[in-house]
Amino acid sequence: MNVSTDSGAEQPRLGFFTDTSVCIGCKACEVACKEWNMVPEDGLDFTGMSFDNTGGLSADTWRHVAFVEQREPLAHQETGLGRRDTVDLGMPSFELPGASAAPEERGEFRWLMSSDVCKHCTHAACVDVCPTGALFHTEFDTVVVQQDICNGCGYCIPACPYGVIDRREDDGRAWKCTLCYDRVGDGLEPACAKACPTDSIQFGDLDELRERAAQRLEDLHGAGVSSARLYGEDPDDGVGGNGAFFLLLDEPEVYGLPPDPVVTTRDLPSMWRHAGAAAVVMLAGVAATFLGGRK
Amino acid sequence: MSTSDVTEEEMHGQKPGRDAVTGAAGVVGEQQRRERDARPSERHADDGEFASYYGRPVINAIVWEAPAIGGYLFLGGLAGASSALAAGAELTGRPGLARPLRYTALAAISGSTAALIYDLGRPERFLNMLRVFKPTSPMSVGSWILMGYGPLAGVSAVTALTGWFPRTGRLATYGAGAMGALVATYTAPLVCDTAVPAWHEGYRYMPFVFASSAVAAAGGAGLIGAPTEQSGPARRAAVGGAIAETAVSTAMEHRMGLSGELYGRGTAGRYMRAAKTLTLAGAAGAVLGRRSRVASALSGAALVAGSACTRLGVFHAGRQSQEDPKYTVVPQRRRRDARERAENAQV
């Protein structure tokens, strides 16, 4: 139970709604986050798999733009009339590419881009398992690491079902998105949302964001983009809903997100019961070894 | 438009052919055509196919080091069960068995705590573990268990060595024995309370695997340290623990679901096979060599080594299940598909 939820009458829960249908993959969010939060370099890598050379969220990457290339039409482009044999050779011309071709003749290709971030779970496994109390829920119901407390035990890292939090090697402590705790406290929006040129990243009161997301989903479905779906907005899901939720155009796992995450501590009462039973059985077993005579 | 087709499938070994021209029926292989035609929405986890982001893991890599945290789990178990066995030996008048086990418990718990501190990113902040008591964090609970148990094991060992305060020493041995069961088992919820599939999905079995493995190791330590005329309980603990460990860990591997297969593969598989071989050989040696001090000690050493291998096997199975997104995605996808089917059936 979060203290901040109980006293939430005056302070509404803050969060992100990341609408990936308008993400253009510019990575301004990654850059803005790094600059504002002074996050160190995360490796100058060439992954060779797409325009994504960041890879994924880590101690030094708090926003990550995923690039998914697919031989898929957008839903409203689907013709189903055996157009797969057409090839757009992409030859140079004086027109915009595909301008003279009917939509169904443009070939099947789409590029999904999505800016990933800490989900700021309602039931956050990282907070639950943190043995020092360094991780906590703020008054905005976001999840933040207190860097002066964290002793780098590394427990939060395998506990996170999304692969968000990580340990910074030369520093030894765990780091992740703070939802710009320093900015929101002063009434500013987080750096990534501020920098996003298409408003793919929207920041605000979670209730309002949820309404906006529902409206956007309805509009997209109405326009024929049947693959649009919300991810992490449901307060009844395995983590009690996310403070940072998404509108996706394909299954979550395509973007590297878990399809049905569950906070691991949901099973912890049962784990303690099993451990207690094992402890009792163990003592009984050891006691039994002394029953067999004096030998 | 580019003619190369970089999809996640090709990360799994299939090289994009130079002639893989978009949609050209004549040059696209039948296999490639089938794969291309299988839309993500039509793929089912049940078919063994699943989608991922370029084959990258969903959850982040475990930062713990295998020798440190494997050793922490193993030594904690050895210490806890040694104390329990020492308490029984003390109670039934077997000082020759109790004494080496009291030493073993202190040495092992010191090593376990040292390994835990060594593996911290900020070892000098170890005491921050004691800022709070959180039942939701097995590492917090474990730190407090260590704080209670460690001094008892210390007093028990030091009084055994010096002969001072024998009554206090006996009481400390009983206290350490009772707490030893907690020391040997709390590490199971510790590893299982994570999103790591090969750990979390085994949470019903893991405490029993760890407890029986700990008893086998403590029995082994007793066989090494105690004279044969007093080592009867250690021998029975060794054999019982070994049989229970082998049975429970085999059951866990078969019943925990998809990631159970990892306990038979790669580094984890090698450690788990070594653990079973050493443990069963040690148990057999403990029975057959019961009249020989040397054979008993060798059997004991095999049991201790087998227990260490079990923990390392569990550790590596967890790491392997983290590295392959299959073990995260497929069970969750099946669970979600089943739930959606059930919801649709109701409507």
From TrEMBL, chain A:
Print the keywords alphabetically: 4Fe-4S, Iron, Iron-sulfur, Membrane, Metal-binding, Repeat, Transmembrane, Transmembrane helix
Q: Answer whether the UniProt record assigns the keyword Magnesium to this protein.
A: no
> Where does this one sit in the cell?
Cell envelope
Q: In this protein, which residues make up the domain named 4Fe-4S ferredoxin-type?
A: 14-43, 109-140, 141-170
Bilayer-spanning residue ranges? 271-291
Pfam families the record matches: Fer4_11 (PF13247), Fer4_4 (PF12800)
Q: State the source organism's domain of life.
A: Bacteria
What is the protein name given in its UniProt record?
A: 4Fe-4S dicluster domain-containing protein
Which species does this protein come from?
Answer: Nocardiopsis coralli
From TrEMBL, chain B:
Report whether Nucleotide-binding shows up as a keyword of the record: no
Q: Which InterPro entries match?
A: Electron_transfer_protein (IPR052049), NrfD-like (IPR005614)
**Any transmembrane segments, and where?**
69-89, 101-121, 141-164, 171-191, 203-226
Give the protein's recorded name. Polysulfide reductase NrfD
Pfam families recorded for this chain? NrfD (PF03916)
Q: Where is the composition biased (Basic and acidic residues)?
A: 9-18, 31-47, 337-347
Q: Which Gene3D superfamilies match?
A: Formate dehydrogenase/DMSO reductase domain (1.20.1630.10)
Region Disordered: what ranges? 1-47, 320-347
Please give, as recorded in its UniProt entry, the membrane topology of this protein.
Answer: Multi-pass membrane protein
Q: What subcellular locations does the record give?
A: Cell membrane
Q: Which keywords label this protein?
A: Cell membrane, Membrane, Transmembrane, Transmembrane helix
Query: Does the UniProt entry include the keyword Transmembrane helix?
Result: yes
Write out the similarity annotation: Belongs to the NrfD family.
